[in-house]
Amino acid sequence: MSTQQQKPNTQETPEDPEMKGAESPQQERLKEKESDMVDETSVDESELEGDTVLIKVFRYDPEVADKQEPRFDDFHVPFKKGMTVLDAVMYARDTYDSSLTFRHSCRQAVCGSDAFFVNGKQRLGCKTQISELEHPVRIEPLPHQEVVKDLVVDMDHFYDQMHTVEPYFQNEDTPDASDLEEQRQTRENREKVKMSTRCIWCGACMSSCNIAAGDNEYLGPAAINKAYRFAMDNREGEEIKEHRLRILEQEHGVWRCQTQFSCTEVCPKDIPLTEHIQELKREAVKKNLKFW
Amino acid sequence: MSQSYNRGLIEDFGRWKEFSAGMWAWIFHKFTGWMLIGYLFTHIAVLSSALTGPEAYTNTIQGLESLFIIRVLEVGLLAVAVFHILNGLRLLMVDLGIGLDTQDKSFYASLVLTAIITVASVPTFMDGVTI
Ligand code: HEM
Ligand code: SF4
Ligand code: FES
Predict the structure, then answer these.
(1) ipTM value for the complex
(2) How far is B89 from chain A (nearest CA, A)?
(3) Crossing angle, helix A273-288 and helix B68-95, to 10 degrees?
(4) Smallest CA separation from ligand 1 atom 3, residue
(5) What's the CA-to-centroid distance between A104 and ligand 3, angstroms?
(6) Which end of chain B is more exposed for a tag (fewer CB within 10 A), N or C?
(7) Domain B20-125 maps to which CATH number in 3.40.50.300, 1.10.10.60, 1.10.357.10, 1.20.1300.10?
(8) Does the A156-168+187-288 domain belong in CATH 1.10.1060.10?
(9) pLDDT at residue A21 greater than cutoff 70
């Protein structure tokens, strides 16, 4: 189901914090924070010109009558050097509209919860500098996933695909722990899987993929990369590698990839996804080629 | 695997202004591939006029080649074929895992080369035809 097709009508949110009604301790804190901000910007005003950014944020909530029709809300956020997209939406939420909903946690590109569709591209909110974007900044939920509310999308399908490839280490004969023996991996092998281990399950790649959009069963770049991480790890045996390749070479596995490079382009952890998918395609072919 | 929602394609192509090199390469490759298949059928149709006799074949060819629009279409066909071949080679390299970091540049190179070859072919294709 797509939510991007409807024509949103722009609406200015009230910027007056007085309109928020009764004051809770939280709100008082927020007001304080805001007055801090205002102070800082007024100090800078002499040097800085145009020190606010306009962000247009997608709003939708099936449970609230006037938000059932998707729309964009405008927020004017004071710009600070080093400000990220996540900082901007957090400011908008804390200052103007506490109902603005989005996921975030680590604020350092580790947890993978704040992938948004920013100015037409899947990006991690906390890793995207406002200063690098064209203004106004348009912030939408990830395409191709059902929107639960505002910038929050349903990630269940993405997680399902991730689990399909059995994303965990499988090796029956691990060395005896009581002997304090280690299960070694060569430096070369570690280098080989290094990039693939960096995935933070943000879903940006899957959302950017045109094939995944049309084929709901396609494993998608992140899941295939996850499989690569284990299939290429030489601490796992040949047998389990074959098992992994059998999952990957299914109809909706690696062969769906048409090398559009969209996933590689958006991955916030710079994982060479297309390269990994292509390598697994070649592995799958090698496994099946018999010259007799 | 879950089958939770039916995601549409329309919104993707509505965002064509935001497509990157790899996506354009994919679209052009699909398009040119199917154009070439289409040409194959018209090609067979023209060739099969030879079944009626040598005269019919000569007349068909001469009739077609005297038309300005056919000459323009021939230039277009060349452009389509050249792009498909060059980008096809690029895709073969991508399949072999070669030059994945420069895939966007090889796509632009395919486009530029196609343009040069197409322009260079115009005098040949347009030789001796009047509008
Ligand atoms: C030297 C000549 C050619 C090369 C190197 C070449 C290369 C390729 C490659 C690599 C693909 C696969 C693209 C992918 O990975 O998705 C492809 C697809 C295709 N080619 Fe070619 N090709 C050539 C000539 C032709 C000709 C002469 C025709 C038509 C008669 C043709 C029609 C197609 C079609 C219909 C597709 C599939 C497009 C789709 O995926 O829907 N190609 N070509
Ligand atoms: S591969 Fe990259 S884009 Fe995809 S889920 Fe992992 S970190 Fe996100
Ligand atoms: S908030 Fe954790 S990745 Fe952005």
Answers:
(1) 0.83
(2) 13
(3) 80
(4) B85
(5) 5
(6) C
(7) 1.20.1300.10
(8) yes
(9) no
